[in-house]
Design goal:
alpha/beta; seven-stranded antiparallel sheet; globular; five-stranded parallel sheet
């Protein structure tokens, strides 16, 4: 095939959307992916999602030791397969708050206010009212999930029939990306139907080394494939490697903070201080209950998590800062967490973090893991929000719909742990884990630390668009898959219009 119009680097949530939309607009596209095809049956069965972590489809990243979380290194599941991390996630579909996007726009990102982006979500979604590519469904609740929903209301949370309506507060069944009971990733929805497209070329098993920059313009990419190095070129390059992968690619390409690059012996192509900074994520802390009445294990293809709620730990906040998600199983993260086989987990969740971290390199080897430092709990407000969320989850688990019907009883942090701030703080530091929503490391903006402009064109070089969760100025209020797909829709629109 001749040189394509566009190279898309990464076939995750964003890369799959961008590729399909550009094909439909008449462009020729080469899509580059480090992983292989999604042939593992566990990918498609949401009851088996835990099997994927640290498996062949997971990059297997761990954070740097988090000094305010007992020095623990947190596992960061990221997808190394077509479809990317959308193949490892819980398929939870959350737009975020209107406030999120209005804040982006207020910071100078014209065109990213909620009124402007809301139609993009509708363009994506396939429901009874819309005809997009991606299925959005609410499967019937498992009995234990109905009990959790009832208990949250007994605690005092309102039932929210549609948390994507613009009002997030309250408890709700999750909207999930499923088709015929199976995972419906953007890869499955957007690309699988057109894999034989005459203007599409797939390069699988292709590890991205660095971008090719000539005279200040990105003209291609260097890849390692089957042990051999190759170069691919195109008129436009779209980087969709995610909030960890995209800054790492930029840094290896000489685009980033000059001092960091020079320390690694990388020639500075463009001094862009914000590359790899502003790392944000959401975080979970398990609150586990056992049950006297046995809970049947999930049936094949049944989602493990089906309900969640959004709640303000401080009523004065403009949007919820916590999002507990609820597993119909007792989810023990490590060997130090033990308990009965029958139970459920209410995950306390922080979704409006104040602390920010970084992604940096220790090597120019594209196979070497970057250093991912969340700088967790650098801002005390994050810790306080999680303490409040853990306390609330314990109280919900003790409500009558769970104690009377299921015989729910405390397992972790344990019946000997009281509800004081001091006791719950110790559990938060011991048990906190990532919610897999990394964002912000190639931040969009108009200031000196921005990595992309509001049109998603990279600063410091031409010919490069970045379109994934890394461009978020601040992480959205809730799961990031939907906002990432929205960003990709906008990116394809902007590329085709240029």
């Amino acid at each position: 095939m001749s040189t394509p119009d566009v190279l898309v680097l990464g076939s995750g949530t964003a890369g799959s959307v961008v590729t399909r939309r550009l094909l439909d607009a008449g462009h020729s596209v080469t899509l580059v992916e480090a992983g292989g095809l999604d042939t593992n049956p566990a990918i498609h069965d949401l009851s088996r999602v835990g099997e994927l972590w640290l498996g062949p489809e997971d990059w297997g990243y761990f954070s740097a030791p988090q000094e305010r979380a007992q020095g623990r290194r947190l596992h960061i599941p990221r997808g190394k397969v077509v479809g990317g991390s959308n193949q490892l996630n819980g398929t939870i579909w959350v737009h975020g708050a209107a406030w999120d996007y209005d804040q982006w726009a207020a910071a100078g990102n014209t065109g990213w206010d909620f009124e402007s982006v809301a139609p993009l979500f509708k363009r994506i979604e396939r429901t009874g009212d819309t005809e997009g590519f991606l299925d959005i469904v609410e499967p019937p609740l498992a009995p234990i999930q109905q009990g959790i929903l009832d208990a949250a209301q007994a605690w005092g949370l309102p039932l929210n029939a549609d948390y994507n309506s613009g009002e997030q507060d309250g408890v709700a069944p999750m909207k999930l990306n499923l088709r015929d009971g199976k995972r419906c990733s953007t890869w499955a929805a957007y690309l699988r139907p057109v894999l034989d497209h005459q203007r599409l070329t797939l390069e699988l098993g292709a590890l991205i080394d660095s971008l090719i920059v000539e005279n200040g313009s990105v003209v291609g990419v260097r890849i390692v494939q089957d042990g051999k190095r190759r170069e691919l070129r195109a008129d436009t390059v779209v980087l969709c490697a995610g909030a960890i992968g995209s800054p790492a690619v930029l840094l290896r390409s000489g685009i980033g903070p000059a001092a960091e690059l020079e320390a690694l012996g990388i020639d500075v192509v463009a001094d862009v201080p914000g590359v790899g900074k502003n790392l944000q994520d959401h975080f979970l802390v398990p609150v586990i209950f056992g049950t006297v009445k046995s809970i049947a294990p999930p049936n094949p293809f049944d989602p493990v998590t089906q309900t969640h709620w959004f709640w303000k730990s401080d009523p004065a906040l403009p949007v919820p800062d916590t999002q507990p998600i609820n597993f119909g199983i007792p989810f023990y993260y490590d060997e130090g967490m033990t308990g009965p086989a029958s139970g459920f987990t209410l995950h306390a969740g922080l979704i409006r973090p104040q602390s920010t971290g970084s992604v940096t390199l220790t090597s120019t080897d594209p196979g070497a893991d970057p250093v991912i430092d969340f700088n967790l709990f650098a801002d005390r407000r994050d810790l306080d929000a999680l303490i409040a969320s853990v306390r609330q989850c314990r109280e919900v688990g003790r409500q009558a719909p769970l104690t009377d019907e299921w015989g729910a009883f405390d397992v972790l942090p344990g019946p000997d742990v009281d509800d004081s701030d001091e006791a719950l703080e110790a559990w938060v530091r011991r048990a906190v884990n990532t919610y897999h929503h990394q964002a912000g490391t190639c931040r969009m903006g108009t200031d000196a630390d921005a990595v992309v402009a509001p049109d998603l064109r990279a600063v410091g070089v031409s010919g490069l668009v970045i379109a994934d969760a890394s461009v978020m100025p601040s992480v959205t209020t809730g799961n990031t898959n939907a906002p990432t797909a929205m960003i990709a829709e906008r990116a394809a629109e902007l590329i085709s219009a240029s």
